[in-house]
Amino acid sequence: MSFMRINNLKVHFPVRGGFYNTIIDTVYAVDGVSMELERGKAYGLVGESGCGKSTLGKAIIGLEKITSGSIYYKGKNITNKRRDRKSIYNRDIQMIFQDSHSSLNPRKRIQDIIAEPIRNFLNLTPKEENRKISELLEIVGMPEDARFKYPHEFSGGQKQRIGIARSIATNPKLIIADEPVSALDLSVQAQVLNFMKDIQDEFHLSYLFISHDLGVVKHMCDHISIMYKGRFVETGTKYDIYNNPQHIYTKRLLSAIPKVTPIGREKRKRERIKVEQYYQKEYKKYFDEHGRVLDLVPISRTHFVATTSR
Ligand SMILES: Nc1ncnc2c1ncn2[C@@H]1O[C@H](COP(=O)(O)OP(=O)(O)OP(=O)(O)O)[C@@H](O)[C@H]1O
Ligand SMILES: [Mg+2]
């Protein structure tokens, strides 16, 4: 049973310009996206820079105004509802922001940053609150004395871990994790990802995991959606996407994953060229005359592809 349902969601931004600062164009950042999320599952959102991943995440937690479409949480329509700061929705849905630097208030100490959701949603005594903050810092591998410092005293990776500590403080149901590890060293990346998996099992959490890294998503997610120009080109289980990709854009993304080993490098290069030629040749089966991604059609119970050729 899904606890969240997103129907044909659109977020369009007007572009203003000219002498009178009038609306001269529109950015179709998210342009008709539907998803169903179940408890305890991890959903991956992959696509190139600017395709609308962060906008979709922000629209879900209510930071971006929804142009049309709807979001249902536990059966309730919460689209563009003015959400009370202390509402259950705000407690249950948390986000780890892509830009951890600007998402942490520079004038607050770390302990107050982490305590903010705790104070909003949990009724703890000051002593319990203190213990909870220590516990969260330990979970994300930060020293106890970090709590007295300010965000600018930390590196990008450390700030990202502080963001994670804050996001899990209130035992949320869904964490939208926007590139949570892309600013981290490889060794720390694995550590944070494994940690996120552990808390997922422990708290039966769901993730909407945003990344441009298909390897990270493969490691973390059960279900994957590939996004291009504000729309899903393909969505399916991890198996569907990696073992049976159908959309030319998905194939192109997969063929572009760099491999560490030099063995077979030439062969992979030839394959990439083949995929590219195929992309040009088959383009019309996957995009309309304006270059817009077609609607998704099912090819199995779990696997959907935006194409005409079925
Ligand atoms: N507030 C805004 N006003 C106007 N355009 C915006 C706004 N926010 C985002 N956009 C545009 O919407 C599109 C999608 O942006 P978004 O940040 O969602 O991309 P993204 O997939 O998260 O990219 P990245 O991987 O680089 O983080 C981009 O073209 C961006 O320029
Ligand atoms: Mg983004």
Protein described:
With 310 residues, the chain is an alpha/beta fold. It folds into two domains: 2-229, P-loop containing nucleotide triphosphate hydrolases (Rossmann fold, 3-Layer(aba) Sandwich); 244-310, no CATH class. Helices cover 37% and strands 26% of the residues. It is built from eleven helices and twelve strands. The protein has helices at residues 53-61, 88-92, 100-103, 110-121, 126-139, 156-168, 186-203, 214-220, 238-243, 248-255, 265-282; strands at 2-17, 22-38, 42-46, 68-73, 76-77, 93-96, 174-178, 206-211, 223-228, 231-237, 296-298, 304-306. The strands form two sheets. The protein has an eight-stranded mixed sheet, sandwiched between helices. The chain has a four-stranded antiparallel sheet with strand order 2-1-4-5. Strand 1 and strand 2 (22-38) form a beta hairpin. Bound molecules: adenosine-5'-triphosphate (ATP) and magnesium ion. Magnesium ion binds next to helix 1. This is ABC transporter ATP-binding protein.
